[in-house]
Amino acid sequence: MRAVQYQTMTVDGLEVFYREAGDPQRPTLVLLHGFPSSSHMFRDLIPLLADDFHLIAPDLLGFGYSAAPSVKQFSYTFDSLAEVTAKLLRQIHVESYSMYVQDYGAPIGWRLALTDPGVIETIVSQNGNAYEAGFFDSAWTRRAMAYGADPSAEHEEDVRGAFTLDDVRWQYLTGTPNPTLLSPDAWHHAVDRLARPGVDQIQLALFRDYRNNVPLYPQVHTYLRESAVPTLVVWGEGDQIFGPDGARAFAADAIEPEIHLLPGGHFLLESAAPEVAALIRDFLNRRLITVHP
Question: Which of 66, 71, 73, 114 is the most exposed place for a label (fewest CB within 10 A)?
């Protein structure tokens, strides 16, 4: 097992934290986290894959241990977060890679792929939506979309509920067959990072911007068809934010996608990291052979 390194890189004057493990000469897998987590969500997965692959897991600005400039200092949109992520990868000399996307990591990853499709070797989507299927049935996502369309005080108050310990715990536990397997460290770490001064305004800005991800979906579908990028979909079937129909929908556009619904919730790695790691290792070893013979 290769040791995990905890590093920072200055990108446009801002410190971006990332976890790195594995041999840089091996194929790279970039791990893109969701709300309200950080690269912390990959703490169990990274050691399981580091002997075979090079792994990079950044914290988005405003999350985890990365810088959190105020909303007056930085424009928090999914476009801008994707730009920072692309610059980080260039600065650490990651020129081509597979990507693992979850929740917020998906719209970041889709932007990376649409901007420079040639650098993406394969895609792993773990509860990372690219379709309206499985999306609008969720009360959680409905309130985010409503706030983006009308950022009134009433809608803001509703969205702020997502920053509370009860709501964050719900995201982690819902849909998990055996909640006793999940460490409370996960949701307490996320809530601790959310509680930093000014981070609430950062998260509100991203909630307002989230609705701008949906118009990108048709472009993502075209990209999946035209690029024929190998795609693995690993989904917690009990997710009540992005339901399993969001996983099945990849079959409409991805070329021969490998779709697996596993017992678990939105943060599937908290209960099934070994199972997900085994699927990823098998998938990458088979599908990357033409890129890395």
Answer: 73
221 carries an active-site annotation:
no
Lowest mean pLDDT among 76-90, 99-113, 130-144: 130-144
% residues pLDDT > 90 (the chain): 87
What's the Cα-to-Cα distance from 110 to each of 6, 163, 216, 237, rounded to whole Å?
A: 26, 25, 8, 22
Q: How is residue 32 annotated by DSSP?
A: E
Q: Which two tokens stand for residue 223?
A: 């990209």
Average pLDDT, the chain: 94
pLDDT(291) > 80: no
pTM score = 0.96
**1: Cβ–Cβ under 8 A, 6 or more apart, which residues?**
47, 50, 51
CA torsion through residues 125, 128, 130, 132, sign: positive
**Cβ atoms within 10 Å, residue 173:** 19
